[in-house]
Task: structure prediction
Amino acid sequence: MGRNHGFTFWAPGALVVLLVLLASSTGHGEVGTGPSHRAEPVVPGRFIVLMNGAFDPAQVAADHAAIPLHVYRVASRGFAARLSDSQVNALRSDPRVNNVVADRKMTIAAKPGTGGGGTSGETIPTGIRRIDAEGVNATDDIGNTIVAIIDTGIDLDHPDLNISDDCRYNVYGGAPEDGNGHGTHVAGTVAAKAGSGGVRGVAPGATLCPIKVLDDTGSGAWSDVMAGIEYVTDKRVKFNEKDPAGIDIKVANMSLGGCAAIVFIWCLAEPPAGNDDCGKVDGTVQDPLHQAICNSTIAGVVYSVAAGNDAANALYFVPAAYPEVITVSAIADYNGLGGGRAKAPRGCNYGPDDSLASFSNYGETVDIAAPGACILSTYKGGGTKTLSGTSMAAPHVTGAIAALQPFAVTAGDKDAPRNLAMQALSKKSQSDVSCGFSGDPDNFHEPLVYVGQSSSLNCN
Result:
Protein backbone atom coordinates (compact mmCIF):
# COMPACT_ATOMS: atom_id res chain seq x y z
CA MET A 1 0.00 0.00 0.00
CA GLY A 2 2.35 2.69 1.24
CA ARG A 3 0.57 5.96 0.52
CA ASN A 4 -1.24 7.50 3.49
CA HIS A 5 -4.05 9.85 2.52
CA GLY A 6 -5.98 10.12 5.76
CA PHE A 7 -7.10 6.50 6.03
CA THR A 8 -5.31 3.26 6.78
CA PHE A 9 -5.44 -0.43 6.05
CA TRP A 10 -4.21 -2.99 8.55
CA ALA A 11 -1.68 -5.37 7.06
CA PRO A 12 1.04 -7.70 8.38
CA GLY A 13 4.30 -7.05 8.15
CA ALA A 14 14.72 -2.08 -14.24
CA LEU A 15 13.38 0.24 -16.09
CA VAL A 16 11.76 0.00 -19.52
CA VAL A 17 10.57 2.23 -22.28
CA LEU A 18 6.88 3.02 -22.05
CA LEU A 19 4.85 -0.10 -22.61
CA VAL A 20 1.39 -1.47 -22.09
CA LEU A 21 1.58 -3.54 -18.92
CA LEU A 22 0.43 -6.75 -20.54
CA ALA A 23 1.83 -10.24 -20.25
CA SER A 24 0.80 -13.12 -22.44
CA SER A 25 2.05 -16.24 -24.17
CA THR A 26 1.17 -19.23 -26.26
CA GLY A 27 0.64 -21.03 -22.95
CA HIS A 28 -1.57 -19.34 -20.38
CA GLY A 29 0.08 -15.96 -20.19
CA GLU A 30 3.87 -15.66 -20.00
CA VAL A 31 5.00 -12.23 -18.89
CA GLY A 32 6.77 -10.45 -21.73
CA THR A 33 10.12 -8.93 -20.84
CA GLY A 34 9.40 -5.86 -22.93
CA PRO A 35 11.96 -3.89 -24.87
CA SER A 36 15.54 -3.60 -23.66
CA HIS A 37 16.09 -1.25 -20.75
CA ARG A 38 18.54 0.54 -23.03
CA ALA A 39 16.03 1.02 -25.81
CA GLU A 40 15.49 4.64 -26.73
CA PRO A 41 12.47 5.90 -24.75
CA VAL A 42 11.97 9.13 -26.71
CA VAL A 43 10.27 9.69 -30.05
CA PRO A 44 12.91 11.32 -32.27
CA GLY A 45 11.83 14.74 -33.48
CA ARG A 46 8.56 14.82 -31.50
CA PHE A 47 8.06 17.26 -28.64
CA ILE A 48 5.41 18.41 -26.17
CA VAL A 49 5.26 22.20 -25.80
CA LEU A 50 3.69 23.59 -22.60
CA MET A 51 2.31 27.12 -22.31
CA ASN A 52 2.69 29.77 -19.65
CA GLY A 53 -0.65 31.09 -18.44
CA ALA A 54 -3.55 31.34 -20.87
CA PHE A 55 -1.63 31.83 -24.11
CA ASP A 56 -3.25 30.13 -27.10
CA PRO A 57 -1.22 27.00 -27.97
CA ALA A 58 -2.50 26.91 -31.55
CA GLN A 59 -1.36 30.49 -32.11
CA VAL A 60 2.07 29.79 -30.62
CA ALA A 61 2.42 26.76 -32.88
CA ALA A 62 1.45 28.83 -35.93
CA ASP A 63 3.92 31.57 -35.01
CA HIS A 64 6.71 28.98 -35.06
CA ALA A 65 5.51 27.23 -38.25
CA ALA A 66 4.75 24.09 -36.23
CA ILE A 67 1.96 21.74 -37.31
CA PRO A 68 0.33 20.37 -34.14
CA LEU A 69 -0.32 16.67 -33.79
CA HIS A 70 -2.44 17.44 -30.74
CA VAL A 71 -3.57 20.67 -29.06
CA TYR A 72 -4.30 20.64 -25.33
CA ARG A 73 -6.52 23.23 -23.64
CA VAL A 74 -8.13 21.49 -20.65
CA ALA A 75 -6.03 18.76 -19.01
CA SER A 76 -2.90 20.56 -20.19
CA ARG A 77 -2.23 23.75 -22.10
CA GLY A 78 0.08 23.24 -25.02
CA PHE A 79 0.60 21.19 -28.15
CA ALA A 80 2.57 18.26 -29.52
CA ALA A 81 4.41 18.49 -32.82
CA ARG A 82 7.36 17.32 -34.85
CA LEU A 83 9.96 20.05 -34.48
CA SER A 84 13.40 20.84 -35.84
CA ASP A 85 16.25 21.81 -33.53
CA SER A 86 15.86 25.44 -34.54
CA GLN A 87 12.13 25.37 -33.76
CA VAL A 88 12.81 23.81 -30.35
CA ASN A 89 15.36 26.51 -29.53
CA ALA A 90 13.05 29.28 -30.69
CA LEU A 91 10.13 27.93 -28.67
CA ARG A 92 12.26 27.63 -25.55
CA SER A 93 13.11 31.32 -25.95
CA ASP A 94 9.47 32.33 -26.40
CA PRO A 95 8.15 33.91 -23.15
CA ARG A 96 4.73 32.35 -23.83
CA VAL A 97 6.27 28.88 -23.51
CA ASN A 98 6.82 27.22 -20.14
CA ASN A 99 8.85 24.26 -21.40
CA VAL A 100 9.54 22.01 -24.38
CA VAL A 101 10.02 18.34 -23.50
CA ALA A 102 10.77 15.33 -25.66
CA ASP A 103 7.84 13.05 -26.43
CA ARG A 104 8.32 9.46 -25.25
CA LYS A 105 7.50 6.12 -26.79
CA MET A 106 4.82 3.72 -25.71
CA THR A 107 4.80 0.19 -27.01
CA ILE A 108 3.51 -3.33 -26.48
CA ALA A 109 6.07 -6.13 -26.49
CA ALA A 110 4.40 -9.44 -25.63
CA LYS A 111 3.65 -12.78 -27.22
CA PRO A 112 0.10 -13.74 -28.28
CA GLY A 113 -2.13 -15.09 -25.52
CA THR A 114 -4.27 -18.20 -25.59
CA GLY A 115 -7.86 -18.72 -26.59
CA GLY A 116 -10.01 -17.07 -29.18
CA GLY A 117 -13.51 -17.65 -30.43
CA GLY A 118 -16.64 -17.62 -28.32
CA THR A 119 -17.77 -19.42 -25.20
CA SER A 120 -20.77 -21.66 -24.58
CA GLY A 121 -22.63 -20.55 -21.48
CA GLU A 122 -21.52 -17.79 -19.12
CA THR A 123 -18.00 -18.16 -17.74
CA ILE A 124 -16.97 -16.64 -14.41
CA PRO A 125 -13.23 -15.89 -14.67
CA THR A 126 -11.08 -16.76 -11.65
CA GLY A 127 -10.36 -13.09 -10.99
CA ILE A 128 -14.07 -12.31 -10.71
CA ARG A 129 -14.55 -15.22 -8.29
CA ARG A 130 -11.50 -14.27 -6.24
CA ILE A 131 -12.85 -10.80 -5.44
CA ASP A 132 -16.40 -12.15 -5.02
CA ALA A 133 -17.76 -10.06 -7.90
CA GLU A 134 -20.02 -12.75 -9.36
CA GLY A 135 -22.72 -11.53 -6.98
CA VAL A 136 -22.69 -7.98 -8.34
CA ASN A 137 -26.00 -7.39 -10.08
CA ALA A 138 -26.32 -5.58 -13.41
CA THR A 139 -28.31 -2.63 -12.06
CA ASP A 140 -29.36 0.53 -13.85
CA ASP A 141 -26.88 2.46 -11.68
CA ILE A 142 -24.02 0.31 -12.93
CA GLY A 143 -25.29 0.41 -16.52
CA ASN A 144 -25.33 4.21 -16.41
CA THR A 145 -21.82 4.41 -14.95
CA ILE A 146 -19.36 5.50 -17.64
CA VAL A 147 -15.85 4.04 -17.56
CA ALA A 148 -13.08 5.27 -19.88
CA ILE A 149 -10.65 2.63 -21.17
CA ILE A 150 -7.48 4.49 -22.24
CA ASP A 151 -5.79 1.79 -24.29
CA THR A 152 -5.72 0.25 -27.78
CA GLY A 153 -9.44 0.78 -28.35
CA ILE A 154 -12.24 -1.75 -27.87
CA ASP A 155 -13.92 -4.25 -30.20
CA LEU A 156 -16.96 -2.08 -30.89
CA ASP A 157 -19.09 -5.03 -31.99
CA HIS A 158 -18.26 -7.38 -29.12
CA PRO A 159 -21.57 -8.86 -27.91
CA ASP A 160 -20.48 -8.95 -24.27
CA LEU A 161 -19.67 -5.24 -23.98
CA ASN A 162 -21.90 -2.18 -23.53
CA ILE A 163 -20.09 0.55 -25.48
CA SER A 164 -21.16 4.18 -25.54
CA ASP A 165 -22.19 5.76 -28.82
CA ASP A 166 -21.47 9.25 -27.48
CA CYS A 167 -18.25 8.74 -25.55
CA ARG A 168 -15.42 7.47 -27.76
CA TYR A 169 -12.17 8.85 -29.14
CA ASN A 170 -9.34 7.79 -31.42
CA VAL A 171 -6.15 9.85 -31.55
CA TYR A 172 -5.54 8.49 -35.05
CA GLY A 173 -8.99 9.43 -36.35
CA GLY A 174 -12.00 7.27 -37.12
CA ALA A 175 -13.68 4.77 -34.82
CA PRO A 176 -11.68 3.53 -31.79
CA GLU A 177 -11.69 -0.07 -33.01
CA ASP A 178 -9.25 -2.42 -31.27
CA GLY A 179 -6.98 -4.17 -33.74
CA ASN A 180 -4.68 -5.35 -30.96
CA GLY A 181 -6.97 -6.97 -28.39
CA HIS A 182 -5.45 -5.54 -25.21
CA GLY A 183 -8.04 -2.81 -24.69
CA THR A 184 -10.92 -5.22 -25.31
CA HIS A 185 -9.49 -7.62 -22.73
CA VAL A 186 -9.22 -4.83 -20.16
CA ALA A 187 -12.77 -3.68 -20.95
CA GLY A 188 -14.22 -7.14 -20.39
CA THR A 189 -12.71 -7.49 -16.93
CA VAL A 190 -14.23 -4.14 -16.02
CA ALA A 191 -17.70 -4.59 -17.44
CA ALA A 192 -18.53 -7.69 -19.50
CA LYS A 193 -22.30 -8.21 -19.34
CA ALA A 194 -23.81 -10.73 -16.95
CA GLY A 195 -25.89 -13.47 -18.55
CA SER A 196 -24.61 -12.75 -22.04
CA GLY A 197 -23.27 -16.24 -22.58
CA GLY A 198 -19.64 -15.10 -22.46
CA VAL A 199 -17.44 -13.96 -19.61
CA ARG A 200 -18.57 -11.69 -16.79
CA GLY A 201 -16.94 -8.46 -15.59
CA VAL A 202 -16.71 -6.87 -12.15
CA ALA A 203 -19.32 -4.20 -12.98
CA PRO A 204 -21.48 -6.08 -15.50
CA GLY A 205 -22.94 -3.87 -18.19
CA ALA A 206 -21.24 -0.63 -17.17
CA THR A 207 -21.01 1.77 -20.11
CA LEU A 208 -17.57 1.74 -21.70
CA CYS A 209 -15.93 4.77 -23.30
CA PRO A 210 -13.15 3.56 -25.63
CA ILE A 211 -10.18 5.94 -25.81
CA LYS A 212 -7.72 4.65 -28.41
CA VAL A 213 -4.26 6.10 -27.73
CA LEU A 214 -2.16 3.16 -28.98
CA ASP A 215 -2.21 1.83 -32.52
CA ASP A 216 -2.95 -1.74 -33.54
CA THR A 217 0.65 -2.79 -32.92
CA GLY A 218 0.38 -1.43 -29.39
CA SER A 219 2.62 1.55 -30.14
CA GLY A 220 2.07 5.19 -29.26
CA ALA A 221 3.54 8.11 -27.34
CA TRP A 222 3.01 10.24 -24.27
CA SER A 223 1.49 12.97 -26.41
CA ASP A 224 -1.12 10.49 -27.68
CA VAL A 225 -2.00 9.38 -24.15
CA MET A 226 -2.28 13.04 -23.13
CA ALA A 227 -4.72 13.57 -26.00
CA GLY A 228 -6.87 10.77 -24.60
CA ILE A 229 -6.75 12.29 -21.12
CA GLU A 230 -7.66 15.64 -22.70
CA TYR A 231 -10.80 14.11 -24.20
CA VAL A 232 -11.84 12.51 -20.90
CA THR A 233 -11.17 15.68 -18.93
CA ASP A 234 -12.97 17.94 -21.41
CA LYS A 235 -16.09 15.76 -21.27
CA ARG A 236 -16.01 15.66 -17.47
CA VAL A 237 -15.46 19.44 -17.13
CA LYS A 238 -18.39 20.11 -19.45
CA PHE A 239 -20.54 17.74 -17.40
CA ASN A 240 -19.58 19.62 -14.22
CA GLU A 241 -20.58 22.86 -15.93
CA LYS A 242 -23.92 21.31 -17.00
CA ASP A 243 -22.96 21.69 -20.64
CA PRO A 244 -25.13 19.37 -22.80
CA ALA A 245 -21.94 18.14 -24.47
CA GLY A 246 -20.58 16.92 -21.14
CA ILE A 247 -20.32 13.27 -20.10
CA ASP A 248 -20.15 11.98 -16.52
CA ILE A 249 -17.00 9.87 -16.82
CA LYS A 250 -16.43 8.58 -13.29
CA VAL A 251 -13.37 6.38 -13.62
CA ALA A 252 -10.63 5.75 -16.19
CA ASN A 253 -8.44 2.67 -16.55
CA MET A 254 -4.83 3.01 -17.69
CA SER A 255 -3.16 -0.38 -18.11
CA LEU A 256 0.02 1.20 -19.46
CA GLY A 257 3.12 2.92 -18.14
CA GLY A 258 6.82 3.50 -18.40
CA CYS A 259 9.96 4.95 -16.90
CA ALA A 260 9.59 7.90 -14.56
CA ALA A 261 12.82 9.70 -15.41
CA ILE A 262 15.26 9.85 -18.31
CA VAL A 263 18.62 11.43 -19.00
CA PHE A 264 19.34 12.08 -22.63
CA ILE A 265 17.63 8.96 -24.04
CA TRP A 266 18.09 6.53 -21.13
CA CYS A 267 15.71 5.59 -18.35
CA LEU A 268 16.83 6.23 -14.77
CA ALA A 269 15.97 4.53 -11.49
CA GLU A 270 14.49 7.74 -10.15
CA PRO A 271 11.00 8.91 -9.22
CA PRO A 272 9.26 11.26 -11.67
CA ALA A 273 10.26 14.92 -11.64
CA GLY A 274 7.94 17.17 -9.67
CA ASN A 275 6.01 14.21 -8.28
CA ASP A 276 4.77 16.28 -5.33
CA ASP A 277 3.63 19.17 -7.55
CA CYS A 278 1.85 17.62 -10.52
CA GLY A 279 4.97 17.41 -12.66
CA LYS A 280 6.30 20.90 -11.95
CA VAL A 281 9.78 21.74 -10.66
CA ASP A 282 10.16 25.38 -9.57
CA GLY A 283 7.20 26.31 -11.75
CA THR A 284 8.49 24.54 -14.87
CA VAL A 285 6.52 21.57 -16.20
CA GLN A 286 8.95 18.65 -16.41
CA ASP A 287 6.35 15.87 -16.53
CA PRO A 288 3.41 16.86 -18.78
CA LEU A 289 1.69 13.48 -18.37
CA HIS A 290 1.48 14.04 -14.62
CA GLN A 291 0.12 17.54 -15.13
CA ALA A 292 -2.60 16.17 -17.42
CA ILE A 293 -3.68 13.49 -14.93
CA CYS A 294 -3.73 16.03 -12.08
CA ASN A 295 -6.05 18.33 -14.00
CA SER A 296 -8.25 15.37 -14.87
CA THR A 297 -8.55 14.31 -11.23
CA ILE A 298 -9.31 17.93 -10.30
CA ALA A 299 -12.28 17.61 -12.67
CA GLY A 300 -13.43 14.55 -10.69
CA VAL A 301 -12.16 11.52 -12.65
CA VAL A 302 -10.72 8.56 -10.69
CA TYR A 303 -7.72 6.87 -12.36
CA SER A 304 -6.92 3.18 -11.78
CA VAL A 305 -3.50 2.26 -13.21
CA ALA A 306 -1.26 -0.77 -13.54
CA ALA A 307 1.82 -0.99 -11.29
CA GLY A 308 4.06 -2.56 -13.95
CA ASN A 309 5.51 -5.97 -14.79
CA ASP A 310 9.22 -5.64 -14.02
CA ALA A 311 9.25 -7.04 -10.46
CA ALA A 312 10.65 -3.65 -9.46
CA ASN A 313 9.73 -0.61 -7.41
CA ALA A 314 6.69 1.07 -8.95
CA LEU A 315 8.07 4.43 -7.79
CA TYR A 316 10.20 4.42 -10.94
CA PHE A 317 7.24 3.98 -13.30
CA VAL A 318 4.53 6.35 -14.44
CA PRO A 319 1.65 6.82 -14.07
CA ALA A 320 2.01 4.24 -11.25
CA ALA A 321 4.18 6.62 -9.21
CA TYR A 322 1.75 9.54 -9.30
CA PRO A 323 0.09 10.25 -5.92
CA GLU A 324 -3.26 11.13 -7.51
CA VAL A 325 -3.94 7.70 -9.05
CA ILE A 326 -4.84 4.29 -7.62
CA THR A 327 -1.93 1.98 -8.41
CA VAL A 328 -2.67 -1.74 -8.67
CA SER A 329 -0.30 -4.67 -8.23
CA ALA A 330 -1.09 -8.22 -9.38
CA ILE A 331 -1.48 -11.48 -7.48
CA ALA A 332 -1.26 -15.02 -8.80
CA ASP A 333 -4.54 -16.80 -8.15
CA TYR A 334 -5.24 -20.07 -9.88
CA ASN A 335 -8.66 -21.16 -8.62
CA GLY A 336 -10.61 -18.03 -7.69
CA LEU A 337 -10.40 -18.86 -3.97
CA GLY A 338 -8.24 -17.78 -1.06
CA GLY A 339 -6.16 -20.13 1.04
CA GLY A 340 -3.15 -20.60 -1.23
CA ARG A 341 -3.86 -24.25 -2.01
CA ALA A 342 -4.20 -24.34 -5.79
CA LYS A 343 -1.52 -25.52 -8.18
CA ALA A 344 -0.51 -23.34 -11.08
CA PRO A 345 -1.90 -24.46 -14.45
CA ARG A 346 0.58 -25.62 -17.02
CA GLY A 347 2.26 -22.62 -18.63
CA CYS A 348 0.93 -20.20 -16.03
CA ASN A 349 3.21 -20.34 -13.00
CA TYR A 350 3.81 -16.89 -11.53
CA GLY A 351 4.57 -17.99 -7.99
CA PRO A 352 2.53 -19.77 -5.33
CA ASP A 353 -1.24 -19.49 -5.37
CA ASP A 354 -2.45 -16.33 -3.59
CA SER A 355 0.94 -14.63 -3.64
CA LEU A 356 2.19 -11.46 -5.30
CA ALA A 357 2.70 -12.40 -8.96
CA SER A 358 6.36 -12.90 -9.78
CA PHE A 359 6.24 -10.19 -12.46
CA SER A 360 4.38 -7.54 -10.44
CA ASN A 361 5.92 -4.25 -9.41
CA TYR A 362 5.61 -3.33 -5.75
CA GLY A 363 6.50 -0.59 -3.27
CA GLU A 364 5.05 2.30 -1.34
CA THR A 365 3.26 3.82 -4.34
CA VAL A 366 1.10 0.70 -4.77
CA ASP A 367 -2.33 1.09 -3.19
CA ILE A 368 -4.20 -2.15 -3.75
CA ALA A 369 -3.79 -5.58 -5.36
CA ALA A 370 -6.00 -7.60 -7.70
CA PRO A 371 -5.83 -10.87 -9.65
CA GLY A 372 -3.54 -10.53 -12.66
CA ALA A 373 -2.38 -14.02 -13.66
CA CYS A 374 -4.13 -16.13 -16.31
CA ILE A 375 -7.13 -13.83 -16.62
CA LEU A 376 -9.84 -14.83 -19.09
CA SER A 377 -11.66 -11.90 -20.67
CA THR A 378 -13.15 -10.56 -23.87
CA TYR A 379 -10.90 -10.11 -26.90
CA LYS A 380 -11.00 -8.65 -30.38
CA GLY A 381 -13.08 -10.52 -32.92
CA GLY A 382 -15.91 -11.16 -30.47
CA GLY A 383 -14.15 -13.92 -28.56
CA THR A 384 -12.09 -14.41 -25.41
CA LYS A 385 -8.44 -14.80 -24.51
CA THR A 386 -6.31 -15.49 -21.44
CA LEU A 387 -3.67 -12.87 -20.60
CA SER A 388 -1.51 -12.02 -17.59
CA GLY A 389 0.00 -8.84 -16.19
CA THR A 390 -0.74 -5.85 -14.02
CA SER A 391 -2.69 -4.70 -17.09
CA MET A 392 -5.17 -7.39 -16.11
CA ALA A 393 -5.14 -6.47 -12.40
CA ALA A 394 -5.99 -2.77 -12.76
CA PRO A 395 -9.40 -3.31 -14.45
CA HIS A 396 -10.55 -5.43 -11.49
CA VAL A 397 -10.15 -2.30 -9.35
CA THR A 398 -11.67 -0.07 -12.03
CA GLY A 399 -14.69 -2.36 -12.13
CA ALA A 400 -14.92 -2.39 -8.34
CA ILE A 401 -15.04 1.41 -8.28
CA ALA A 402 -17.77 1.39 -10.92
CA ALA A 403 -19.73 -1.28 -9.03
CA LEU A 404 -19.49 0.24 -5.56
CA GLN A 405 -20.29 3.85 -6.47
CA PRO A 406 -20.85 4.91 -2.84
CA PHE A 407 -19.11 8.24 -3.16
CA ALA A 408 -19.67 11.56 -4.88
CA VAL A 409 -16.65 13.52 -6.08
CA THR A 410 -16.70 17.30 -5.96
CA ALA A 411 -14.49 18.89 -8.60
CA GLY A 412 -11.62 21.06 -7.46
CA ASP A 413 -9.36 18.78 -5.39
CA LYS A 414 -6.79 16.70 -7.27
CA ASP A 415 -6.57 14.13 -4.46
CA ALA A 416 -10.29 13.78 -3.71
CA PRO A 417 -11.26 11.27 -6.45
CA ARG A 418 -8.49 8.86 -5.47
CA ASN A 419 -9.00 9.25 -1.73
CA LEU A 420 -12.77 8.83 -1.85
CA ALA A 421 -12.50 5.78 -4.08
CA MET A 422 -9.87 4.22 -1.80
CA GLN A 423 -12.00 4.89 1.26
CA ALA A 424 -14.87 3.06 -0.45
CA LEU A 425 -12.62 0.18 -1.46
CA SER A 426 -11.06 -0.04 2.02
CA LYS A 427 -14.41 -1.01 3.50
CA LYS A 428 -14.44 -4.12 1.34
CA SER A 429 -10.81 -5.10 0.71
CA GLN A 430 -9.21 -8.23 2.13
CA SER A 431 -6.52 -6.83 4.41
CA ASP A 432 -6.20 -10.07 6.40
CA VAL A 433 -3.31 -11.90 4.70
CA SER A 434 -5.05 -15.27 5.21
CA CYS A 435 -7.81 -14.05 2.92
CA GLY A 436 -5.55 -11.88 0.81
CA PHE A 437 -2.10 -12.87 -0.44
CA SER A 438 1.49 -13.38 0.64
CA GLY A 439 4.93 -12.74 -0.81
CA ASP A 440 4.99 -8.94 -1.02
CA PRO A 441 8.74 -8.10 -1.05
CA ASP A 442 8.38 -4.74 0.74
CA ASN A 443 6.99 -3.33 3.96
CA PHE A 444 3.88 -1.93 2.29
CA HIS A 445 1.55 -4.92 2.04
CA GLU A 446 -1.46 -3.63 0.12
CA PRO A 447 -4.94 -5.13 0.56
CA LEU A 448 -6.63 -7.27 -2.09
CA VAL A 449 -9.67 -5.66 -3.70
CA TYR A 450 -12.97 -7.26 -2.71
CA VAL A 451 -16.54 -6.34 -3.68
CA GLY A 452 -18.57 -9.06 -1.93
CA GLN A 453 -19.96 -9.21 1.60
CA SER A 454 -17.36 -9.92 4.28
CA SER A 455 -19.74 -12.34 6.00
CA SER A 456 -19.70 -14.54 2.89
CA LEU A 457 -15.92 -14.56 2.42
CA ASN A 458 -14.55 -18.09 2.16
CA CYS A 459 -10.79 -18.34 2.57
CA ASN A 460 -10.63 -22.10 2.19
About this structure: The CA atoms of residues 340 and 353 lie 5 Å apart.
